[in-house]
Design a protein that fits this description.
22% helix, alpha/beta, six-stranded mixed β-sheet, 5 helices
Length: 317
């Protein structure tokens, strides 16, 4: 048996911060537990969302066998109640595997973007955070283009899927917690669907919403072979476009479901053209997504959680 189901969620409502797009300096009125200004905790509302997510996840079928997360604090805090409930039922594998490959996306810049806390530091806050797991890839600190983000997520997901397929315990389902842009990219590389317009509203990254992907094929041997190890800044190319998808391809059967959240669909996001900090002082946009430094738009409510192309209204975040 190989991995059959991938569940993906986005972190809950977080505390905001302000960034100077010229220098990369971050400021926040709420101290980050890790001491990294761009690594905020959840807001109180996000904590409640995380608890509601946990109540829902423990009822999933098939149940969650492994848990992966972006190593940023807000994702780990979102997963904490879920992992506790899973562990109480003998599920989830007893640990969170932090993987930078499904971490935050920052646009290209001349300065260094912040990195998450070390495994040792994060383990102090989240005792189930693995100190031995090795991330599939670490993104460039100078940021990425939109294409590079998709290539990074394709490689990371290929590695994660191949590693889970190879486990003796044969996990059937995995839960990932990530960020808005990365969630969209993960949906695209799993299904193999890359829209002509990158700004298309396809996969829905509502806070603490849940998407589910089911594997299309179950090869007796890894269809892509042993995934090449990433060496340095060069990301090995994975052939996922044109409907192929990574790891044999996956179908999206649930897209940003928020039916279990009291507030429903909230804080959606989609790409909105600008992917770079490489701007002059007169070109700084007033609709930069706080914490990303890229343009983003909130998507409207009332979406069909099983579809991926039901156009929605947009507004500034």
């Amino acid at each position: 048996m190989v991995l059959e189901v991938i569940y993906v969620t986005r972190h809950g409502f977080r505390v905001n911060w302000i960034q100077n797009p010229q220098t990369g300096a971050y400021q926040t009125n709420v101290p980050s537990p890790t001491g990294i200004p761009s690594d905020p905790p959840l807001a109180g509302y996000g904590v409640q969302q995380a608890k509601q997510l946990a109540e829902h996840v423990v009822k999933l079928d098939p149940p969650v066998d492994r848990v992966y997360s972006s190593p940023f604090y807000r994702c780990l805090e979102t997963l904490a109640p879920t992992v506790e409930k899973l562990d109480g039922r003998g599920l989830g594998g007893g640990e969170i595997r932090g993987d930078n490959g499904i971490g935050e996306w920052y646009g290209t810049a001349r300065f260094d973007h912040p990195s998450p806390g070390s495994p040792e530091l994060l383990h102090k806050f989240f005792p189930t955070y693995s100190q031995t797991y090795k991330p599939s890839i670490v993104p460039s600190r100078n940021g990425e283009t939109i294409d590079q983000l998709h290539d990074r997520c394709a490689y990371a997901m290929s590695r994660i899927i191949a590693d889970l397929d190879a486990e003796e315990a044969k996990p059937k389902a995995v839960l990932l917690c990530t960020h808005a842009a990365s969630l969209i990219a993960i949906g695209r590389v799993l299904t193999g669907y890359m829209p002509e317009d990158v700004n298309e509203e396809d996969f829905k990254p509502f806070t603490c919403g849940l998407s589910q992907f089911v594997r299309r094929s179950f090869p007796s041997e890894r269809e892509e072979g042993r995934v090449q190890t990433c060496d340095g800044d060069s990301i090995p190319k994975i052939d996922w476009r044109n409907g192929r998808g990574v790891g044999g391809g996956w179908d999206c059967v649930l897209n940003g479901d928020c039916s279990f959240l009291d507030g429903g669909e909230e804080r959606g996001w989609h790409f909105s053209g600008d992917e770079s900090f490489m701007t002059g002082p007169d070109n700084v946009s007033d609709d930069l997504d706080a914490g990303l430094g890229i343009k983003g738009a909130v998507v409207g409510e009332g979406a069909d959680n099983t579809g991926i192309r039901d156009g929605q209204s947009c507004a500034k975040l």
